[in-house]
């Protein structure tokens, strides 16, 4: 086994017949035992990337390396890679254990070893009693588990998952997210999952590659993507954020005064990198939870008018009008200072380090 990354995509391009560009020079390394998600809007190239790794699609140029070996010319079946498809692709004419045993039979495994492996796989996914069940009698979540067992039983070096939970309802989906993560950590298998659901990607992945128009915008762990998005696209795609174009004015005792387009001039604090940015035009990103309700008259507060209120469980999400711009603001329900209602004027302030100034205007 090599010491380097398990999988590497090296300047992979894909142009489809007819000229549509699927991937535009994707380079990416995936470590052993890592759970990496490919996240992005419809048409950004997630599935094409997965299909190229699996061998169902041939890149127009570039290479796919597994364990340091160039596998670009290999057919899907010759790669130590398995895929769980969005629709599970189970064989409806076979029962659960026959579905799971299928890949082992193809590999010529003997009856007793095969039966043992199938039993272990069923226990792993929590279905030890359903070996003889017909696929048609299973629920969506159970089918999902059979598809996982069928892919994992062959002990692939790499498991690819194409929107594996998209057919499940919200509560089962959350449960299966935990199950997927548990399985992955227990087995130590490297997982690459395609999803367009940012909450799912953030809660399940070690790292996330955010894709846009055939390229990778940023690849990082969930907290870095959330706290330090590298572009406006990433900031807007991961969670809700306020993107405010403006200019840094001058240093003040408590931070740097920032002039937002319009008339809001908050003092923002943060790392020393901010101090070097006086006079620079850029966009700052501020998360709704980093804007806090203050008392009117407190220093460094600003006033806005509440235009709408949405119930978000432990907090209220307000849309607050500030001159010509509007801000999303989350107010924890147990920390509401005054009456919150549409049309009311509210005093707001920024948490220390609330602003991410890394985005070009
Ligand atoms: P979705 O979330 O909708 O599945 P995606 O991010 O997986 O989208 P891809 O399916 O990888 O996106 O498609 C990337 C781009 O390549 C899109 O513009 C798509 O139209 C194009 N594309 C994908 N497959 C083909 C094909 N077989 N022929 C022509 N164009 C294709």
From TrEMBL:
It comes from the Bacteria. Pfam families: ABC_tran, TOBE_2. The keyword Membrane does not apply. Residues 7-238 form the ABC transporter domain. Keywords: ATP-binding, Nucleotide-binding, Transport. GO terms for molecular function: ATP binding. InterPro entries: AAA+_ATPase, ABC_SmlMolc_Importer, ABC_transporter-like_ATP-bd, ABC_transporter-like_CS, Mo/tungstate-bd_C_term_dom, P-loop_NTPase, Transp-assoc_OB_typ2. PANTHER family: SPERMIDINE/PUTRESCINE IMPORT ATP-BINDING PROTEIN POTA (PTHR42781), SPERMIDINE_PUTRESCINE IMPORT ATP-BINDING PROTEIN POTA (PTHR42781:SF4). This is ABC transporter ATP-binding protein. It comes from Acetobacter sicerae. The lineage of its organism: Bacteria, Pseudomonadati, Pseudomonadota, Alphaproteobacteria, Acetobacterales.
């Amino acid at each position: 086994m090599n010491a380097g990354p398990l999988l590497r995509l090296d300047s992979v391009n894909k142009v489809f017949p007819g000229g549509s560009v699927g991937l535009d020079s994707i380079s990416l390394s995936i470590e052993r035992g890592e759970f990496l998600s490919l996240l992005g809007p419809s048409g950004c190239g997630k599935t094409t990337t997965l299909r190229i790794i699996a061998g169902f699609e041939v890149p127009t140029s570039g290479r796919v390396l597994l364990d340091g070996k160039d596998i670009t010319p290999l057919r899907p079946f010759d790669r130590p890679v398995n895929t769980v498809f969005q629709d599970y692709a189970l064989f409806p004419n076979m029962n659960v254990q026959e579905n799971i045993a299928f890949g082992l039979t193809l590999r010529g495994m003997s009856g007793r070893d095969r039966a043992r492996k199938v039993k272990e796989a069923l226990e792993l996914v929590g279905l030890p009693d359903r070996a003889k069940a017909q696929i048609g009698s299973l629920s969506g979540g159970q089918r999902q588990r059979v598809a996982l067992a069928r892919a994992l039983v062959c002990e692939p070096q790499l498991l690819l998952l194409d929107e594996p939970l998209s057919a499940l309802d919200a509560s089962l989906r959350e449960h299966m997210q935990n199950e997927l993560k548990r399985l992955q950590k227990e087995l130590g298998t490297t997982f690459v999952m395609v999803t367009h659901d940012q909450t799912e990607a953030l809660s399940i992945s070690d790292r996330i590659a955010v894709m846009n128009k055939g390229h990778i915008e940023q690849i990082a762990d969930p907290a870095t993507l959330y706290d330090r998005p590298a572009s406006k696209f990433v900031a807007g795609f991961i969670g809700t954020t306020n993107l405010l174009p403006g200019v840094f004015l001058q240093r003040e005792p408590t931070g740097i005064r920032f002039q937002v387009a319009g008339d809001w001039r908050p003092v923002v604090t943060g790392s020393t990198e901010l101090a070097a940015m006086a006079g620079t035009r850029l966009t700052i990103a501020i998360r709704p939870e980093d804007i806090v309700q203050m008392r009117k008259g407190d220093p460094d507060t600003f006033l806005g008018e509440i235009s709408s209120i949405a119930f978000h469980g432990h907090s209220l999400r307000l849309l607050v009008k500030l001159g010509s711009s509007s801000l999303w603001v989350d107010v924890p329900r147990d920390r509401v200072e005054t009456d919150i209602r549409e049309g009311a004027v509210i005093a707001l302030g920024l948490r220390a380090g609330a602003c991410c100034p890394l985005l070009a205007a």
